[in-house]
Amino acid sequence: MKKIGIGALLFLVGFLAWGPIAAAEGITVVVDDDVKEYDQSPVLKEERVLVPLRGIFGDLGAEVTWEEKTEMVHAVNQEIEMELPLNSSNAIINNEEVELDVNAQTVNDRTMVPLRFVSETFGAKVDWHDKEKTVKIVSAETPDEELPLPESVPEDEDEEISLVDFTD
User: Fold this and answer.
1) Cα separation, 100 vs 46, whole angstroms
2) 54: burial class by Cβ within 10 Å (0-12, 13-18, 19+)?
3) Which segment of 65-69, 108-112, 148-152 scores lowest on mean pLDDT?
4) Which residue of 40, 62, 85, 94 is surrounded by the most CB atoms within 10 Å?
């Protein structure tokens, strides 16, 4: 009986310690049709998916640095500059403060960042597919689909084609 009580107590302590951060077992992250495997699995916090910062920033083509002293993530991608302090409810995007749904935080010695916030800040499109437990991201660097050619092109070389100027 004592073994059951001690085991239940240890389970309860472990559950309470990790209750706010649940391992997102079975969640798949797909960036530009490429399934991503990170050194730390995604985690759920307050109904948000967090992933390792170096993985997602690299996937989105951003240069990232970590400032140990201030616990600040700096990331740059084309015209977007992001400062993301650890355990803060705010980030700074191009010198403007923005409120976060969930803080960047450390999990198993990895700095984890909110996937949707980071991806959308860098211009990516993000979709959550609940049934499959999959996050699909299309980066801003992915070219749009090529426009289809018109179904008919004038075959007669003498046929006149007129252009319309809409700039006036």
Assistant:
1) 12
2) middle
3) 148-152
4) 62
123-128, long-range: CB within 8 Å, 24+ apart, which pairs?
A: 123/80, 124/31, 124/60, 128/49
Question: Could you give the 3-state DSSP secondary structure of residue 119?
Answer: helix
Mean per-residue pLDDT, 112-123: 94
Q: What's the residue count for the chain?
A: 168
Q: Which helix (H) or strand (E) holds 56?
A: helix 53-59
Which range (14-18, 89-93, 161-165) has the least confidence? 14-18
Tell me how far apart the alpha carbons of residues 53 and 121 are, in angstroms, rounded to a whole number: 14
Q: Which two tokens stand for residue 150?
A: 């018109």
Tens digits of per-residue pLDDT, 124-161?
999 999 888 899 999 887 655 443 434 444 455 555 54
Q: What angle do CA 62, 110, 85 make, to 5 degrees?
A: 60
Report the C-alpha gap between 137 and 28 in whole angstroms.
11
Alpha carbon distance 126, 118 (integer Å): 10
